[in-house]
Design goal:
The protein has about 350 residues and is of the alpha/beta class. The protein has 2 domains: about 130 residues, 3-Layer(aba) Sandwich (Rossmann fold); about 150 residues, Dihydrodipicolinate Reductase, domain 2 (2-Layer Sandwich), CATH 3.30.360.10. Helix content is about 30%, strand content about 25%. It has 10 helices and 14 strands. An 8-stranded mixed sheet has the order 8-9-10-7-11-12-13-14, with helices on one face. A 6-stranded parallel sheet has the order 3-2-1-4-5-6, sandwiched between helices. Helix 5 packs antiparallel against helix 10. The chain is globular and about 55 Å long. It starts with about 20 loop residues before the first strand and ends in a 9-residue tail after the last helix. About 0% of the residues have low confidence.
Amino acid sequence: MNEFNAGNKPNFSPLGESEGAVIRWGIIGVGNVTEMKSGPAFYKTENSELVAVMRRNAEKAADYAKRHNVSKWYSNASELINDPEVDAVYVATPPDSHVRFAIEVMRAGKPVYVEKPMAKNYAECLEMLKVSEETGMPLFVAYYRRALPAFLKVKEMIETGAIGKPLVVNIKLHKPPRTPDLKKEEQSWHVHPDISGGGYFFDLASHQFDYLDFLFGPITEVSGVATNMAGLYPAEDTVVGTWKHESGVIGSGSWSFVADKSTETDEIVITGDKGEIVLPCFTHENVKFTSYEGVIEMGFENPEHIQQNLVRQVVDDLRGEGKCVSTGASAARTSWVLGEMVKSYYPKKTT
């Protein structure tokens, strides 16, 4: 991996360095993900306000602004980016426009928080990191599992030796096709690689690999086979792969998005020399810890708006009061892994 190493952002001064300052946000792309998962977090988090939103459909932009009590709305992204009352921008569009909008935001002298995956491919991630370095503008990515209770507890357990020395991690994510997948005219952009970079693997496995990066450090070796078994859409629907972390932990995984409902599985299994942890990534079921003493199940409650814990970290970082655990540098590593895993299916694609 030819990773770009972002520096210490020497040109950036915390936006909240004035006492009592509030980070004023604008959102580009107020689609479904911003209704509950993320959008409200920007006006419910302390020292944070949502002051402007943008969507190409002006009527929908205005409707979102009205329902969320946002004072300004736009149908043109550049107008929002250059609004002097907007301090920082959240890019919540599909991945094909992340690189363009993120770079425009940073060149306008403003920090940017980007939806995951960071971009369509690793090459675009490097472009974004380069501009972050050039401008001194912080770049964050919405890998919010790094800030959720269950995932933090598992990290704590591993670091305190609950399972001894971590040895192996295995991912199994098998899901049936979504109903819209069955009709081409109803299919989501998620299954069109020219927009998303890949299929549901890019959308969902990105969370899993980012979290494993958080636990065990960067992945240094990766190999995968990707294919389309059902022929429902252009993207890959089945992936199998192996990898190795710089810490020595090795991993394997299988992803199928055309499996039978009866075989649906969502688990990350982390095995050590003294125990094992089974963690669901998307269903929010209990975490299971197995050791010589038996099995313990642990339940956790997530924030009402799933991204709120991470948004709070971003706001604190921008105010000079903390550090966000999900950066452009860490997110780019995940995009590299995704690209390497599926390159057999996209032999001419830039990863």
